[in-house]
Each structure stands twice: as structure tokens, then as C-alpha cells.
Amino acid sequence: MPEVPSHLRAVLVRLGVLAAGLAGIVGVAVLNRFAHLGLAPTLLLEYVAVTCVIWGLNGFLFRTVPLSGLSLLVFSAAAFGVLFLVAYFVGAIVAPLLFDAAGQFIGLVHLTDFLFYAFALMTIAGAAGCAFSRNIIYSAWALLFAFLGVAGLYVFLGADFPAVAQVLIYVGGILVLILFAIMLTKQIGGDPSLTNAHLGLPIGAALAAATVGTLAYMAVMTPWKEAPSRSYEPVSAALGTAFLTDFLLPFEVASVVLLAALVGAVIIARKEIKEQSDAVLE
DSSP character for 191? Predict the structure, then answer.
């Protein structure tokens, strides 16, 4: 069996003592918490564990100042005193203040408000990812989170039918159609990073700044009226009645426009396929 080199043996010994010291620090703290060792035994055992950690680190971090004997004990005592003061400051002063501030903040924030801001943040982040990503595939996935966030906002507004339609039509239909179009298009599938290049970035940034500024000004300066919260009422029946009575003509016109768009897409696709087949035959 080959003999272990002396320098490797020294490194392994240092690592073993370092691991033992770290385990000792945690173990003594746990024992003091549940077994109540007392102040003097706890401090002594923690000092021994810190000394082991410092001796183990001395072989890797403090090579210019080798510690051994009395210098190791003095340096360990100084480090132990600093760590003890830091732990006491954090445990006795900082932690209670943080817990008290967190409790007051949690008391002020309701779960519904937190969920509303979470959906709003998801909508904004998804829209930003869709607009600013240079990869069209990543833009399509970011659009998914924007659609889901809008559906959540519809739920908070008490609009159950638009929320479900948002998920079924936009997420389950339009987004899936976009992803299939990306995967089935040869020009996009070759190099998707070049298909969503930023054009007119300065003009777009100026328009975005103006839009955000206008919306922020309206949100802050508008005297919003707080209406009493009403009980949840489904809106699907009212929407169906409105589509078949007061808004029947716009509904039918929109249906004709969508049908014309579908017919036009089929004609354009058949024309391109015919041109490609004729080129292949020639």
C-alpha cells in the first residue's frame, strides 16, 4: 500500500481539525439550547472549537503568520471575543428589532394585497421580458407569464369569465399557436437569436418613458373614489346577455373580421406552398 506524502497528510489533518471545530461550534450551541450546559462550560467548549477552526484555517489562509502554542491561544481568544460580541449584538439587539419590524410589516400587509402585487409584478416582468428579449422563443415564454398575470388581475376585479377566457384563449390558443409557428418556421428555427432584433431603440425608449410617466402621473394625481366592496357575482350570464342583445352587431362584425383573417391566412399559405413546389419542379 503506497505511503501518503507528508504534505498531503498535514493538509488532511488540518481539514479534519477544521471540520471538527465547525461541528463543535454548532454542537455546543445545540447542547446549550436543549441541555442547558451553563455559561462557563459553554464558553470553554466554544473556545476550544474556535481554536480548532483557527488552527485548521492557519494552514490555508494565514500562512504568512503561522500560529502555534501561545500565539495560537492568544489569537483564538481574541477571535472568540470578537465573535462573542458580534453574536451577542445580533442576538440581543438586531434580531428583536428585525422580528418586531417584520411583525409590524406583516400586520399591515394583507394576503390579498400581497397576491395582487405579486400578479401585477408578474404581468409587468413578463411584458418586459417579451419586449426586451432578443430571443423570440424567450419572448414567447415571457408572454405566458404576462397572460397569466392579467388573468389573475381579472380574478381580483371579480371578472370570472374574462379570467378563464384569458387562460383558455390567449394561453391555451394564441400562445401555443405562436410557439408552433416559431418551431415550424425554417427561418426562425435556424437562428432564433436574430429574429427579434431591437429596431428604433432610442425612439422606443422615449415613448416608453413618456408612457410610464403619464401613467404614473395619472395613478398618483387622480382622485380615485373608494367604493364599498361588493360580494362576488359571476359575470358570464351578463356578458352572454349583452353579446346577444345590445352588442349583437359588434359581435357579429368581429366574427366576420376574424373569419376574413383566417381565409386570408389560408390563401397566403397556399400561395407560398404552390410557389415553392413550382420552384422545386423547375
Answer: -
Do 130 and 33 share a domain, yes or no?
Answer: no
| Residues 78/90, Cβ–Cβ less than 8 Å | no
pLDDT band of residue 44 (cuts 50, 70, 90) is confident
How do residues 199-213 score in pLDDT, each as one tens digit? Answer: 566 777 788 788 888
- Residue 230: pLDDT band (50, 70, 90) is low
Among 57, 91, 108, the domain boundary falls at 108
126 shares a domain with 97: no
Q: How many structural domains are present in the chain?
A: 3
Range of the domain at 274: 247-282
Instruction: Please spell the DSSP secondary structure of 198-267, one letter per residue.
Output: --SHHHHHHHHHHHHHHHHHHHHHS----PPPPPP---HHHHHHHHHTTTHHHHHHHHHHHHHHHHHHHH
29 and 133 housed in the same domain: no
Main-chain phi, psi angles of 3, to 5 degrees: -80, 140
The predicted model scores a pTM of 0.49
Q: Rounded to a whole number, what is the distance in angstroms from the first to the last CA of the chain?
A: 77
Give residue 208's identity as a one-letter amino acid code. A
Q: Report if residue 52 sits inside a domain.
A: yes
Q: What is the 3-state secondary structure (H, E, C) of 25-54?
A: HHHHHHHHHHHCCCHHHHHHHHHHHHHHHH
Same domain, 159 and 279: no
Question: Nearest-CA neighbor of 13 among 2, 24, 21?
Answer: 21
Contact 174, 143 (CB under 8 A): no
Statement to judge: residues 103 and 124 lie in one domain: no
In a domain, 73, yes or no: yes
Which among 86, 24, 31, 90 has a CA at the least distance from the CA of 55? Answer: 24
Largest CA distance in the chain: 96
